[in-house]
Amino acid sequence: MLITILGQHGPNAPLLQELVGNDHQVRTLPGFPPDGVLQTDVLITTRLTPDEAGRLQARLLHVPGAGLDAIALEAVPQGCLVCNVYEHELPIAEFITHAILQHQIFGESESPVLDETHWPQEYLGRRFHGEAAGKRVAIIGFGAIGRAAAQRLRALEMHVTAVTRRGTPEALADATSHISQLRSLLGDIDYLVLSCPLTEDTRGLIGPEELALMHPEALLINIGRAPLVDQAALYEALLHRRIGGAVLDVWHHYPQPGQTQLAPADYPFHTLPNVRCTPHISGWTHGLIRRRYALIARNIQQLEKGAPLKNLLHQPA
Question: Which residue, among 165, 155, 161, 108, has the nearest Cα to 133 in the 3D structure?
């Protein structure tokens, strides 16, 4: 089989070659060809425009991540299967837990200088910090990430509310709420975690009205997609401290290879002391990459045998 990996995922080609064996050929391309047909058995990419999909001849399109918002599913050619991978719930759940503990223990303060000059005043003037236990967190989107986060947060004796489209009880949450009831929850929670997918229904889910309802000391943690939140409203709320702060790991603008100048958002969130900005690293671990490509390799082997694939999302007629 010929397996083609596009763009920024190219460095993972040696790992995939190791996993699928030498009976398959793994090649890399800097991007989808600007014209003509791309013929391959398997294409691995996180981006595919309608035009590119129309010029693809493949048996399997495998997204090496969870998000499909940059894949033109409606244009995928007949007979081409589409799969994705997850495997990021463990590190992202750890990231969420760390964000909450960091907020409770250290807040906005920087590490003190504990030399012979500063130590006496730092010790004698030390201030109390918070505790996670007893705090209330709402997690919007209770898939693999939400459940993994809930397990860890409940171990800290936090109260977890799962906010979902179904609104049915979740075993790993202390309470469950339908997404339509979100506004009624916002005034009572200390932490709001966004881990739902970006769809037309969730775009701008957290806007000026929702932010105005949040507790003035509440922390918003977004590890889902940046457009889940109205960025102008969020910047204003943070700038004027209408909410306590934010941890932002997802962004509105992402650079392409070779691009050296690009702001991640339309507003300078990085200048605000109550915001922790991270470059989409919440799930980015060595373990994640190996787990993901191991699943991709298994799906390629299953495709060769004509067996069912895992995480099959789209099967054009």
Answer: 155
> How do 81-83 and 312-314 pair as beta strands?
antiparallel
CATH number for the domain running over 89-277 = 3.40.50.720
**Domains 2-87+286-314 and 89-277 alike in fold:** yes
At 256, is the pLDDT very low, low, confident or very high (cuts 50, 70, 90)?
confident
Between CA 84 and CA 12 the distance in angstroms is: 16
Q: Give me the chain's average pLDDT, please.
A: 95
CATH superfamily of 2-87+286-314: NAD(P)-binding Rossmann-like Domain (3.40.50.720)
| Cβ proximity of 54 and 37 under 8 Å | no
Cβ 208 vs Cβ 192: under 8 Å: no
Which of helix, strand or coil describes residue 83?
A: strand
pTM for the full predicted model: 0.86
C-alpha distances in Å from residue 73, one per residue of 48, 55, 303: 8, 13, 19
Q: Quick one: average pLDDT of 72-95?
A: 95
Residue 4 has pLDDT above 70, yes or no: yes
In whole angstroms, give the CA distance from residue 138 to residue 293: 32
Over 80: is that where the pLDDT of 63 sits?
yes
Q: Which of 92, 187, 160, 214 is nearest to 206 (CA)?
A: 214
Helices (H), the chain: 13-20, 50-54, 89-105, 119-124, 144-155, 182-186, 208-213, 231-239, 286-305
Residue ranges covered by each domain of the chain? 2-87+286-314, 89-277
Q: Output DSSP code: residue 144.
A: H
At 68 the pLDDT is 87
